[in-house]
Write a structure and sequence with these properties.
Strand content: 15-25%
Order of helices and strands: EEHEHEHEH
Distance between the termini: 32 Å
Helix content: 25-40%
Structural class: alpha/beta
Largest sheet: 5 strands, mixed
Number of strands: 5
Shape: globular
Length: about 110
């Protein structure tokens, strides 16, 4: 069972994580990206993620690299205070485009 759902938006889609970011979600998300060749904006909704593990961070870094290779824009939003602190402590914040709200993340 996937730990996320996908919702279409203008020029792309939102991946809504239901709880933790799982390593096994990576391949399914990459397949979703490949199957939507016209989607140039991939938004990750982390608002339901209360904790992030090292493998979860690895999944997000892998998705970031994959999107760059595919010339797609990857945007994160909804980071809890704890998750944001983990991004800052691991110095990963600068490699991601992070927005506060869904509206900011999907804005053209």
């Amino acid at each position: 069972m996937k730990g996320f759902t996908v919702e279409g938006i203008n020029r792309g889609f939102i991946v809504i994580f239901k709880s933790e970011v799982q390593t096994e979600d990576s391949a399914a998300i990459k397949e979703t990206i490949k199957s939507h060749p016209l989607a140039d904006r991939i938004v990750l909704d982390l608002s339901q993620v209360s904790l992030i593990t090292t493998p979860g961070l690895g999944t997000l870094v892998s998705l970031s690299k994959f999107c760059k290779d595919q010339k797609r824009k990857l945007i994160l939003f909804g980071l809890s205070k704890y998750v944001r602190e983990v991004f800052d402590l691991t110095r990963l914040s600068p490699i991601f485009e992070i927005k506060q709200t869904r509206e900011e993340a999907i804005r053209d």
